[in-house]
Structures
1.
Amino acid sequence: MEALKKITNNCRHATFLIEKKLIGRLTLRERIFLRIHLFGCGVCQLYQWQTQKINIMVRQLLHGSAAQDAKLDENFKKELQERIEDELNKN
């Protein structure tokens, strides 16, 4: 059980560093930890790849001409609001 806790804590720290790396610089210690962790963790490798792709797509959307045309469908917004209200009323 303790070994599993250590692994999940390492993955949590690694995903934090992956996110931090997207917005700023990592320290030498953080870069070394992340490199070693990614070498042996396929799940975090996939997380890093997906995070990078999502980041690129969002930047393109926000900076491209599609940003002005990007809107949520009114029916989707209404359904989402109803779901939120239903969940809030459960508590």
Note: The mean pLDDT is 83.
2.
Amino acid sequence: FDLIMLGLGEDGHTGSIFSDDPAMTEKKHLVASVSNKMIDEHDRVTITLPVINNAKCVIFLANGTRKAEAVKKVLEDKDPSLPATLVKPTDGELIYLIDREAASLLSNGKE
């Protein structure tokens, strides 16, 4: 893909890839079935991290104070248990579009 736009969940999930779900470590398939009854009662299909990481450009959108902890864990703590942390385009660009509230817990985001 030339461009993939992703959201960032409060729990660090992205693209319907949740922590501790087999989709998080899928290496062979382009898409995976995801069932997370804690989030909603519907099964989902997601593209896998190898597909995301082969994009020319990946953009994360995160806004609001409810995302601040996840933003910090992904960008500063680099918590490998969070799927969003594993988004690292191989030969592409990674861009974060984050509002002031979502960036409020970052050490360089304080005024």
Note: The chain has a mean pLDDT of 92.
3.
Amino acid sequence: MIIAIDGTSSSGKTSIARELGNLLNIPVLGTGAIYRAVALKLYNASVEPNNDEKINVTVNRPDLVYRYS
């Protein structure tokens, strides 16, 4: 089962998703955390936003791991 919850920043998407996940006993994947982790990884590697090749190489390394909440 896949349920997508969309909305503006700070609208409670993650809170609703966690409650729904608990209710239905399904994992929740918070994409905001993924975006922030990727952005931090690129920032720490000093990758310029317009350098597509370096972005792909940096992001596709196996040391970026996400765990379901």
Note: Residues 31-44 form the longest helix (14 residues).
4.
Amino acid sequence: MSTELKASSIKVQDFLSSRGHDFVIQQMPASTRTAVEAADAIGCGVAQIAKSLIFKNGQTGEAVLIVASGTNMVCAEKIKQQTGIPLEKANAAFVREKVGYAIGGVPPVAHTAKVQTLLDQDLKQYGEIWAAAGTPNTVFRLKAADLDSLTGGQWLDVAKR
């Protein structure tokens, strides 16, 4: 298996480095496409996986990124109550067009266009979290607080309880 990063992961690494971060993208031998697969490959808790989910804003048609804890399901009604944004599911073609990555490898950063970002406040309870880095088997470690400066996102209660 090759240890060279693919172009999409290099794009993420370049983005992180250009902002003064020394995060290192790690290519895993197993899939990290889902939060459970990622946690198994990394050896951390599923809740420490910062999954990047792309939705469609039902009013504007633009992409909305929600970075959620791996154990949480996003509650569209909570999002609408807190932001006024009606969320719609996004298909694979929409995700690739709007952010430049395939589902299963969408990172929280380095998108092809600016994306409105909402952050799951549950991620703040972990000393370290892990996020996708552009492919279904690359990840990088960071702190939840790093998401503020990297994404400009808004912290909310996004979880369906």
Note: The beta strands are 26-27, 49-57, 63-69, 87-89, 116-120, 129-132, 138-142, 154-156.
